Protein backbone atom coordinates (compact mmCIF):
# COMPACT_ATOMS: atom_id res chain seq x y z
CA UNK A 1 0.00 0.00 0.00
CA UNK A 2 1.31 3.45 -0.89
CA UNK A 3 1.80 5.81 2.05
CA UNK A 4 2.58 8.94 0.04
CA UNK A 5 3.93 10.16 -3.28
CA UNK A 6 5.54 13.29 -4.63
CA UNK A 7 5.48 15.17 -7.91
CA UNK A 8 8.18 17.51 -9.12
CA UNK A 9 6.60 20.78 -10.25
CA UNK A 10 8.20 23.68 -12.08
CA UNK A 11 6.25 26.39 -10.22
CA UNK A 12 4.99 25.28 -6.81
CA UNK A 13 2.92 28.43 -6.22
CA UNK A 14 1.01 27.85 -9.47
CA UNK A 15 0.66 24.12 -8.77
CA UNK A 16 -0.54 24.70 -5.18
CA UNK A 17 -3.33 26.94 -6.49
CA UNK A 18 -4.28 24.37 -9.15
CA UNK A 19 -4.36 21.42 -6.73
CA UNK A 20 -6.14 23.37 -3.97
CA UNK A 21 -8.99 24.06 -6.40
CA UNK A 22 -9.00 20.68 -8.16
CA UNK A 23 -8.77 18.59 -4.97
CA UNK A 24 -11.33 20.56 -2.91
CA UNK A 25 -14.30 18.50 -4.21
CA UNK A 26 -12.43 15.33 -3.17
CA UNK A 27 -11.80 16.56 0.38
CA UNK A 28 -8.04 17.00 -0.15
CA UNK A 29 -6.49 20.15 1.29
CA UNK A 30 -2.95 21.45 1.79
CA UNK A 31 -2.06 19.93 5.15
CA UNK A 32 1.64 20.92 5.30
CA UNK A 33 3.70 23.52 3.49
CA UNK A 34 7.36 24.38 3.82
CA UNK A 35 10.70 24.43 2.06
CA UNK A 36 10.55 20.62 1.65
CA UNK A 37 7.26 20.77 -0.29
CA UNK A 38 3.51 21.09 -0.03
CA UNK A 39 1.56 18.07 1.20
CA UNK A 40 -2.10 17.56 0.34
CA UNK A 41 -4.34 14.98 1.94
CA UNK A 42 -7.24 14.31 4.25
CA UNK A 43 -5.76 14.84 7.71
CA UNK A 44 -2.36 13.40 6.70
CA UNK A 45 -0.39 14.57 3.68
CA UNK A 46 -0.02 11.80 1.12
CA UNK A 47 0.29 13.79 -2.12
CA UNK A 48 3.35 16.06 -2.20
CA UNK A 49 4.41 18.83 -4.56
CA UNK A 50 8.15 19.39 -4.61
CA UNK A 51 10.20 22.02 -6.42
CA UNK A 52 12.08 20.70 -9.41
CA UNK A 53 12.05 20.12 -13.12
CA UNK A 54 9.60 17.36 -14.02
CA UNK A 55 11.39 14.76 -16.11
CA UNK A 56 8.41 12.52 -16.80
CA UNK A 57 4.67 13.02 -16.71
CA UNK A 58 2.94 10.87 -14.15
CA UNK A 59 -0.60 9.53 -13.88
CA UNK A 60 -2.17 9.84 -10.44
CA UNK A 61 -5.73 8.77 -9.60
CA UNK A 62 -7.51 10.05 -6.49
CA UNK A 63 -10.53 8.12 -5.18
CA UNK A 64 -13.81 10.02 -5.16
CA UNK A 65 -16.69 9.03 -2.91
CA UNK A 66 -19.28 9.41 -5.67
CA UNK A 67 -19.73 10.44 -9.29
CA UNK A 68 -20.78 13.96 -8.33
CA UNK A 69 -17.35 14.44 -6.72
CA UNK A 70 -15.68 13.30 -9.96
CA UNK A 71 -17.76 15.84 -11.88
CA UNK A 72 -16.91 18.59 -9.37
CA UNK A 73 -13.19 17.72 -9.53
CA UNK A 74 -13.20 18.02 -13.31
CA UNK A 75 -15.06 21.33 -13.27
CA UNK A 76 -12.79 22.79 -10.56
CA UNK A 77 -9.61 21.55 -12.23
CA UNK A 78 -10.61 23.00 -15.59
CA UNK A 79 -11.52 26.33 -13.98
CA UNK A 80 -8.11 26.34 -12.24
CA UNK A 81 -6.26 26.06 -15.55
CA UNK A 82 -6.18 22.32 -16.09
CA UNK A 83 -6.33 20.90 -19.60
CA UNK A 84 -8.90 18.29 -20.57
CA UNK A 85 -7.55 14.75 -20.89
CA UNK A 86 -10.91 12.96 -20.68
CA UNK A 87 -14.19 14.40 -19.36
CA UNK A 88 -16.23 12.65 -16.64
CA UNK A 89 -17.78 9.43 -17.77
CA UNK A 90 -17.93 5.64 -17.61
CA UNK A 91 -14.79 3.82 -18.75
CA UNK A 92 -16.24 0.34 -19.39
CA UNK A 93 -12.92 -0.92 -20.73
CA UNK A 94 -11.72 -0.86 -17.09
CA UNK A 95 -14.97 -2.18 -15.54
CA UNK A 96 -18.71 -1.37 -15.80
CA UNK A 97 -18.78 1.07 -12.83
CA UNK A 98 -15.48 2.88 -13.51
CA UNK A 99 -16.43 6.56 -13.57
CA UNK A 100 -13.48 8.87 -14.03
CA UNK A 101 -12.30 12.24 -15.26
CA UNK A 102 -8.80 13.18 -16.39
CA UNK A 103 -7.04 16.56 -16.47
CA UNK A 104 -3.49 17.63 -17.18
CA UNK A 105 -1.98 19.80 -14.45
CA UNK A 106 0.24 22.84 -15.20
CA UNK A 107 3.26 20.55 -15.77
CA UNK A 108 1.39 18.00 -17.89
CA UNK A 109 0.86 15.33 -15.19
CA UNK A 110 -2.33 13.30 -15.84
CA UNK A 111 -4.51 13.70 -12.74
CA UNK A 112 -7.66 11.61 -12.41
CA UNK A 113 -10.58 11.44 -10.03
CA UNK A 114 -12.30 8.06 -10.04
CA UNK A 115 -15.35 6.45 -8.43
CA UNK A 116 -15.79 2.67 -8.66
CA UNK A 117 -19.29 2.58 -7.16
CA UNK A 118 -22.45 2.09 -9.20
CA UNK A 119 -24.56 5.19 -9.70
CA UNK A 120 -26.82 5.73 -6.71
From TrEMBL:
VOC domain sequence ranges: 1-116
InterPro entries: Glyas_Bleomycin-R_OHBP_Dase (IPR029068), Glyas_Fos-R_dOase_dom (IPR004360), VOC_core (IPR037523)
Protein name: Glyoxalase
Organism per entry: Asticcacaulis benevestitus DSM 16100 = ATCC BAA-896
Taxonomic lineage: Bacteria, Pseudomonadati, Pseudomonadota, Alphaproteobacteria, Caulobacterales
Amino acid sequence: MIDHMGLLVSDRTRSKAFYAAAFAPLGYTAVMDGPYGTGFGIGKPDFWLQDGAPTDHLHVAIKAENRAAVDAFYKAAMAAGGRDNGPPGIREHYHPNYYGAFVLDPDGHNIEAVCHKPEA
